[in-house]
Amino acid sequence: MSRPRLRHIAFVVQDPKKMADFYTSHFGMELFHTDPDGSHFVTDGYLNLALIQQRLDGDVPTGFNHFGFHVESVEPYLETLEPKPALRGGDRPFAEYRAIDPEGNWFDLSAHGFLPPGAGEA
After folding, report:
1. Residue 30: which of 20, 19, 17 has the closest Cα?
2. CA distances from 63 to 7, 15, 43, 46 (A)
3. The pTM is what?
């Protein structure tokens, strides 16, 4: 099996469009997806940056939220990680599973990559 690769970092932000504009204009990143809630997703062609819209209820603070590994297959991690990774439900097309490290940091595991289905993977 090949080594997992960090391919995704996510931040909760108050103004995703403003943040996406910052990263596209100053660092040449490309906007590749916008969610109906306003979250924006940009990429440098290798690493994707999710700029997640903070909800009005303020349940999740702004700042770092999670990171994601692109893996050849999720199955080996389902067998070895404790607690077991959870299947991500809902309308999130970017990662199949969510897990947590020993200090409580969330991370995603994805075999298909972190671009929306049909967008290809850099």
Report:
1. 20
2. 18, 12, 18, 21
3. 0.83
